[in-house]
Amino acid sequence: MESGYPVPVELAPYVNSNSIVVRSPGRINLIGEHLDYNSGFVLPAAIDKAVYVVVEKQDPPFYSLHSVDFNETADIPVADVKPAFGHWYTYILGVVAQFNATGRSVPPFKMAVYGDVPLGAGLSSSAAIESAAAFSINELFGYGSDRLQLVKMAQLAEHEYAGVKCGIMDMFASVFGKKGQVIRLDCRSLEYAYFPLDLQGYEIVLIDTQVKHSLASSEYNVRREQCEAGVAMIQKKYPAVQSLRDATMAMVNECIPQDDIIYLRCKYVVEEIERLVTGCADLERGDVAAFGRKMYRTHEGLSKEYGVSCKELDYLADFVAAHPEVIGARMMGGGFGGCTINIIKKEAVEPLINELLPLYKRDMGLELKYYRVNIEEGTSRI
Ligand code: ADP
Ligand code: MG
Description:
The chain is α+β, with helices and mostly antiparallel strands. It contains ten helices and 13 strands.
């Protein structure tokens, strides 16, 4: 299946009659934060920033990998595939290793990579490069893996070759994205459904705090434990509850003392699942304003109850909340830095950013960045 996306000029010199070009996008998540490990839902979408690869077979027994962005080439002997932590090509080797592990010894190939997903900004450029590698290798050698198998290979590549024990959302969104639609992914069953995101004169803008506090990974583990502790408390009375997905607010109120921090953590999760489900109904009705209000409440919950925000994220969320042209905003991702996701009236984007830039610089001492994004197709050949 070929799409209408153009080959980026940066990759044109690598394209010939034997090569395959694949585009795999970055992603956003509209609502449903910290729900994946609670067997809840997420609501991601693929964006108009992507990683592109050109691949072709070659005879010399190497994987010849070239990054246009880093202007660097690595020739990895076919017999020597192992993690290269910290290097851009580890993600590609990680994918090769997954094909090898499933009995398909990947023959030598040449791959050139170029992308415009900002690195490390929370748009999952790593999932984009992994998904592009998995899809293109599968096409080049005719392996016939389906999209979900490619997603799982990309996820394992991230676990084993980047050392990041991520969930499945990022790769899933990159590979399964659809133009103008968000994906409601059930993290328990992996069932998914598309919902239209008709923005009606509004636009999605990510505002990048330019900070990443080191608390992120330790607090992530603490939150997981707190959720498990909450489930254990509820299970004493309701043994069928396996995760917070199965819990209701009535159960939380009944089983967890309200002065226990675990109460607030669980309250956020149970309410966020509810917000996501009813938010999808908002989208089906075309009511972006109602959806946006839920995003603001998600931010409140993440900041005041779940405790994963930081002063920079709160600053950005508070700033836009005072502007009626911004109908929804929240921190996006694990927290303690990264971006906020905002739904802003198109013509208000530039003036709002121009107002915010100097204030953020004055108050936080940092130069913020922002990215306007559109929702586009997932991984495809171009
Ligand atoms: P995120 O996934 O949030 O963008 P990560 O740190 O997980 O951040 O992944 C970023 C890494 O992915 C980069 O440091 C680089 O190694 C790799 N990567 C992403 N995009 C490209 C690209 N266009 N070319 C080469 N490597 C890339
Ligand atoms: Mg990543």
